[in-house]
Model the fold of this input.
Amino acid sequence: MDKLTITKPDDWHVHLRDGELLGDALRHTARQFARAVVMPNLSPPVTTVAAAKAYAQRIMQACKLLEPSEIGHFEPLMTLYLTDNTPPDEIEKAKAAGIVGVKLYPAGATTNSAAGVTNIALCDATLAKMAQIGVPLLVHGEVTSAQIDLFDREAVFIEEILHPLRLRHPKLRVVFEHITTEQAVEYVMNADTQQLGKIAATITAHHLLYNRNAIFQGGIRPHYYCLPVLKREHHRQALLKAATGDSERFFLGTDSAPHVTRSKEQACGCAGCFTAAQALELYAKAFDSVGKLQQLEAFASFRGPDFYGLARNTEQVVLEKKPQEVPHQYAFGAEYITPLNAGQTLEWTFLG
Ligand code: DOR
Ligand code: ZN
Done:
């Protein structure tokens, strides 16, 4: 197969940033995706419906400044950042405003998570409201305790936080974001959705393509550092099997997270991989590696809207098996961002 035509996909987890970075982050995402679930971990975070609406307007403004030939019609799907103090009332307003989900960042887990949740029990009334009126919880699934090894934080989160949370709120729908372990795959695959709310998971291209060796290949490679961090090969294999398999519970979320090159390449570099510019090419490489390209459309274009109860897109896009070299840098305003795979050749090219 040297051409692949699929329904235009959506990105169910992306960081579009704000200010000077927003226009360029958007340019890359809107070129390949019709819609994207936009993460609220700005500084300050998007904790209110008013802030989410204002952010959506800035995104639409930035959209207008892009060349129409460069991007298609693009719709941002907005989220709210959960704090210890998010009132249940705000959830009612969020539902009415079309906000698609509320994001749980355990405080200290990742970029701009300082205002996140310190103790999930503090959010019970708000979570009850979400379960009652059907607003999904989007989860950064890692515990933050210094006692727990970084590589075990997702597996411990399932036992200590996620499963008890689903038992306490049996109607709550959950998206386990950017899963990285076989424990997460097994949990989502086998989760009871008869007695408990529906659960799904997003999977990034980088977690499908790389294991943790990539971070240390001949030296330290900051552009492969993200959170949750890349894991061992058997975890990657489990993710690849889930993404390319038949379960409707796994779908595309790039977690493309641009940080300017100088803040990745320093003594304490930021977490995040920038993949939006070649997102579909990277997913195609992963699916092709196990002979499952025919499953890419379901993963990228069908299961996400089905979970969120939105219509599937109707346009189509084409990928061609034609080599492309990934640029060393992309200009983002006056700054530069280094993409994952910078300087390498990818086999597939997105034609639009
Ligand atoms: O690697 C990451 N980068 N993981 C996250 O959870 C946040 C993201 C970011 O915003 O940079
Ligand atoms: Zn993210």
